[in-house]
Input
Amino acid sequence: MFSKLKSWFKSLHLQILATLIILPSTILVSQIDTVDILPPVLWPNSGCGEFAYVVTENRNFQLNADTFNLDAGISNEPIFYDSLSKNLSKIKLNSDFIPGKKNYRFSFTMSVIDKYKEAFGLFALYDASPNNNFIFDSVRYVPELLEFSPMNLSYGNVFIGNSAQLESKLTNITDSTIEIKELRLANSTVFKIVSIEPDIRFIEPKESIIIKIEYSPIENPNSYDYDFDSLIVKTNCLEFVSEMFGTGVKPYIQVDDIDFGAIPIGSKLCNDEQPLAPGVRIYNQGNGHLIIKDYIPPDIDGPFYVLETMASPIKGRVVMPTSEIYFKSICFEPTQQGEFFDEVVFRSNATGTDSICKLRAIAYFPGVHFLAVNFGSLRVGDTLEKFIVIRNDSDAPIDLTNVFLDKATTEFKILSQKAALFPTANNPVTIYPKSTQEPGKITELLIPVQYMPINEGYLEIRINLEISRQGVQSIPMFNYVRGNAYLPKLFAKGYNFAERTPVNNVSSDTGFVYLHSFSQTADLRIKKIEVEKTEFPGINDFIFTFAFPRDIVLYRNSSLRLPVIFRPEGAGHRSIKVVIYHDAYKGKTDPLRYDTTIVYLTGEGYNKVLAFENLLFDNVFHCTESTGKLKLSNISTDKEAFIMDMKIISGDIDAFEIDVEEIYTEFVILQPGESFEVNVTFKPDIYYKNNFESVVRVFSDVDTATAILKATTRKYDLAVKLDTLNNVIPGMLTLLREKLPMNREFPISLVSDNLADLGIRKFDITLKFGKNDLRYFDQVEPGLGIIDWHTLDAQLIQFDDKYNLLHIWGEGDSDLIIGEDVIKPGFIVMLGDSGTINVEIHDATFYTADSCAVYTLNPGQMHMSYCGSHIRNLIISNLVYGIWAEQIISKNSGGTELNYNVAIESHTQVRIYNSTGVLVETVADNILKKGSYTHQIDLAKYSGGMYFVTMNSGPYTAVRKFFVIN
Output
């Protein structure tokens, strides 16, 4: 069918051509000249900064008796005068213009870049006639501008339950009337428009309207963020937005409870004493000021009471948001045995039920007792052991016969088998008063208790002590063990896109992964969320609109939705699994342990008649051009498809180019089962981007289909390297000179394993070095990499008190040669303090390579020789080498001193020889630290005559002589 249709059109073309060949002979008989003297015709259409033109060059009529005008058509693109234009995009030709061929009717567009600013453009067209008939035209755009005053509205803090109003002034700042098409708030939840004065549709030049907006915050105890909304005003072409902010504030009171524990009858304990100090905490967990107005004391007939002299300052106290104060006035003074409960109620301007301080205490007669044991918070499934410590605060020994729980429980256990001593009725444990000093007598007994929670929540249980007096059992005292069990919990749900979606199209439905922390006792920590494959394809089909959160806390009774869109890249069932790593597990708490919960995202893609095979350019280099084939197939069994157009419709449009010449010049008809390929060129157009994607749409008479073009890129590796020099000595020059053979070069080179020819013809390099290490020699020589460049210069710049910068730049007409030395800076090596001189490449740019390569700046080093570094050490030492002794010494004096200095720590050898060279005495032969030394010469070892003292220490060598006379 495809070939038959092409043959038919070819035959029709030949017939038309034959007719045109016959016509000129008739015209020539009449001696009429055929010319083109008219410029192209422009048919403009514009609106809101968008300019569209239709160009025609198809006039065919007789001008006069001797002349016939026949338009020659247009083969060159319109000329856009960029330098004379402002804020306007260049001309974009539509697909009906074919460059290089004669076009008799085509269209193009131009767009204002920033539609809130004025724009102007100038362009010209000329036809293909010998006269080059041309036409100039221009476009001008003046925006209709409105101005808000103030630009944004800030309401500050507003108490929940109250309202605040502010006015926004909207002014027409242009010279023309502006029509208001829409005026509204984006959300209208806590903000609302109260009035518009005057309420008009058209605003004249310099005229204003006043918009009054009210803010009424609502209570949201789980959030302390500010409220936000936008005032949106739309005109014929533009949209203006004024933002507004406000914070709803309200104090929330939280009062801690007091457990006085167990105290003996006849004693008193107040909450400003240890272990209850500094008092009852009153905390404002809201975001408004908390004012304590008054309090209701406990029962006047009970053992709890409030000291009025201490309590009076609490009235009228102000507690700032997220701040706290302490109430230090509550006491417990029991007169009888038992357990007691009461409360103190605080009155304030806050809401919430936690304004009550609950009081609790146990009173017992002096004797055996123990403090309550609080296990604190423990994860369900974990285990913790503690001890109850039983003491005797009476004056006489007491026989303890049993320690037992009030009732059987699986959470708390008394570990009697682990106790060193455990009392029973047959084997009581005698506990002596704590003042007892006699060895072997027990003054305290440790009983281990275990807490292993199996359910969430707070739990306490009473532990009783049983004693025996004259064979009679009694329970003189009890107390509690307590624990709070917590368990994070996660409910997670995936999503099924129920509607079948065409391949490479976005589903009309937006799905989400739903996470809910439903624990009442603990927040949920989410470590990470990952996507994994299933047995079905679809790993790239589900696109999350936001990046996955990591290391976040999902507070109890709060939720998180992760929006996802479905764009199948193939037909059939598609799915992925979403793996959530979280700490909703039972057992021992481990900060490195996370459980996983898996949910699924599912959908179904389908093709109708046409189907693409998506194209991927994987891991290509920046600044290179890659080509590939995009394949389109007719997958139907009974329908042919006439391909009318194919184009890139979204994404990184400028990075991809498809060759659709054949579609426009040939009739492409795909029969069932046939395929068609087009060439696609990829050239990265944004240097800081590594992932590119575009959507291609094909249009036919029976169907449309969509393809995804993807590309991943990487940059070339380019190392800017300085050399490393060893055995460097002071005074060396890093440029070669014939008369100074000790000099050596210190070049900079470019090295790359994969760098293509980037045409580098310009560079800037800045070196950083110590002022006391190197001195610039005022010369930089070119390396083989730029040997014939016309420009190479440098400038010395002071960086700070310690460092200098050397800025070197070069430019040439030939490409820089990668791998060869680029430049050779000249430095004179100074006599510095260190054995190593570091030279840093502070900055480097190679212009054409900047967008294509990743630079690695490798610094250089100069390692000083041993000699050079030690010369420096000698000079900076506050000591100098030396050795001193009296030249003439009388043997009758009995002895004399030999003094010597060591300037730097090194091996030192000091010896004394007689005149014949025989060693008489070794004064030193070891490593000595820097310092002054004295040696006492014993003259009993010496006879009369001449002696020599030799000293070798580091770089220092000396010989001294002295005489011994009888």
Q: What stands out?
A: Residues 610-714 form a domain with the Immunoglobulin-like fold (CATH 2.60.40.10). The mean pLDDT is 86. The chain has four helices and 78 strands. The first strand starts at residue 33 and ends at 35.
